[in-house]
Amino acid sequence: MDERGTELSPVWFSATLRFASFTEDGRYFQPDVSVYTFKAVDHTSAFDRALQIGRGAERSFVNALGVRIRIALVDIETLNMLGDELDGVEVFYCPGQEHDTSPYTWDHSFTPERSTPYTAL
Question: For the whole prediction, is pTM greater than 0.85?
Answer without folding.
Answer: no
